[in-house]
Design brief:
With 227 residues, this protein is mainly alpha-helical. Helices cover 51% and strands 8% of the residues. Helix 3 (59-79) runs antiparallel to helix 4 (84-119).
């Protein structure tokens, strides 16, 4: 460790936290050692992860045992009517089995995520197995076309091309048009009046028609101020 790989503490710090310790981890590819300052004031017992591991230890065996007990009660129920206590036990076992199954699924998912984070992008055997599995799932080995099984790369290419080309092909169909319809049209005089300049009287009339509470225009003045 170098002089940079340490904590600077004072006497007052040591008095306030006498149980503080400095933990150095492996430096890996870095030139410096990661240092963690830890304060162990009290021992609170096993950590949640350790409790979780102890509580769900041998989860597969517990699930198998619950399945065997449920199967035994089901067989007994086919031969004779179950007692009230046995019906309650069967219900409790079903609830426990579903609960343990959910926990097992969650743990397997977390283990898979941890395994992928640890070995996924490291060009490891697990990475290549995952990529091979994904490639197998994405591969198209055969398709059904009009009830006929089509195999082979070239045959599948042709079937896919024909399927989409038949959907997006332009068809010669009779489409409705506007030919033969008589629309009302403007005369040349009316059309010319649409582009002619406004007269001074029209400007005055538009301003005079503005109410006093109209919103300001682009110049921040109300219409009634323009006289």
């Amino acid at each position: 460790m170098s002089r940079l790989d340490r904590f600077m503490v004072s006497e007052k710090w040591c008095v306030s936290w006498p149980n503080c310790i400095q933990v150095a981890h492996q430096r890996g590819l870095s030139d410096h050692v990661p240092v963690v300052l830890d304060v162990d004031n009290a021992n609170w017992g096993p950590r949640p992860l350790q409790w979780h591991q102890q509580h769900f230890k041998n989860l597969d065996g517990k699930i198998l045992e619950a399945k065997n007990q449920i199967s035994s009660l089901d067989i007994k129920g086919e031969e004779a009517e179950l007692l009230e206590e046995e019906v309650k036990e069967l219900h409790d076992l079903s609830v426990q089995l579903h609960s343990m199954a959910r926990v097992q699924t969650s743990m397997n998912w977390q283990k898979a995520r941890m395994n992928w984070v640890r070995e996924g992008d490291a060009n490891s055997k697990n990475f290549h197995n995952m990529m091979s599995s994904r490639q197998r799932r994405n591969a198209i080995h055969l398709v059904h076309v009009d009830g006929v099984l089509v195999e082979g790369v070239q045959n599948i290419h042709t079937a896919v091309y024909n399927h989409y080309s038949s959907h997006f092909r332009a068809l010669d169909v009779l489409r409705p048009g506007v030919d033969g319809l008589n629309f009302r049209k403007l005369s040349y005089t009316q059309a010319a009046s649409l582009v002619q300049s406004f007269s001074l009287e029209e400007f005055k009339q538009a301003v005079w028609d503005c109410e006093s509470f109209k919103s300001p225009g682009p110049d921040c003045f109300l219409g009634w101020l323009h006289v």
